[in-house]
Write a structure and sequence with these properties.
236 residues, alpha/beta, Rossmann fold, DNA polymerase, domain 1, two-stranded antiparallel ribbon, 10 helices
């Protein structure tokens, strides 16, 4: 067993690209927004590359077709309103949990370890999406990108989650698919776990010390498999 995970008291998860594949619905909302604004649609793969920093940033990126540029404020406001209106009504048309997501969450809950979601998605959308996917009841806490003054990669959401759960943040695991998740975890000194099935390229992220996860998994049950020995030891 990895010595770094011998005292885990909580597990936090990113949402999009970690618990579920939401790109089809995010891309559909982007297409609807662009159509309403009289602009050309973008391929779903391009939209996927823009996901991870909240819908506000996603709208900027889709409107400019650039990760770093920002759209004109008036255009962005129209786009944001259009995007949110469509997306709120089509949260889970195509979005589905990744294979073994629910099985992995159920196994972790059986250990008595509190679970949390820390996402950059707006909180109201994150909560509703998790409800529609039948996953909300697994979590003791759901934090969105607008729940606090700062979002990932800021360490604030992780520190806040640990405080709410009544644990030392160093004893929490952060599971995600992006640099934001890994950087935030490293900033608070907790274990960062990267998933290979999400939108982030773990091979690429692992080439940089700042974004290299402590551990890489191919499915959520792998977390349980490594924490089960801890549970048995604690009960001895």
């Amino acid at each position: 067993m990895n010595a770094a995970i011998e005292h885990v008291q909580a597990v936090a998860f990113d949402l999009d690209g970690t618990l579920c594949d939401s790109v089809p619905d995010l891309a559909a909302a982007a297409e609807a927004m662009l159509e309403q604004l009289g602009m050309k649609p973008l391929p779903a793969k391009v939209v996927e590359s823009y996901v991870g920093d909240g819908i506000g940033k996603l709208v900027h990126r889709v409107l400019t077709n650039d990760r770093d540029r920002e759209a004109d404020s008036e255009l962005w406001e129209k786009g944001f309103v259009s995007y949110m209106k469509y997306y709120r009504d089509h949260l889970s048309v195509f979005t589905r949990p990744y294979p073994e997501t629910e099985a992995g969450l159920a196994l972790l809950k059986s250990l008595g370890i509190p679970l949390a979601v820390i996402t950059n998605k707006n909180e109201i959308l994150a909560v509703e999406l998790l409800k529609q996917l039948g996953l909300a009841d697994y979590f003791s806490l759901i934090l969105g990108g607008d729940s606090l003054p700062e979002k990932k990669p800021s360490p604030l959401p992780l520190r806040h989650a640990a405080e709410v759960l009544g644990i030392d943040v160093a004893n929490m695991v952060m599971v995600g698919d992006s640099r934001n998740d890994i950087i935030a975890a490293k900033a608070v000194g907790c274990l960062s776990v990267g998933v290979t099935f999400g939108y982030g390229d773990m091979t690429l992220l692992s080439q940089d010390d700042a974004t290299r996860p402590d551990w890489i998994i191919g499915s959520l049950p792998e977390i349980y498999e490594n924490l089960q020995p801890q549970k048995n030891k604690d009960e001895e």
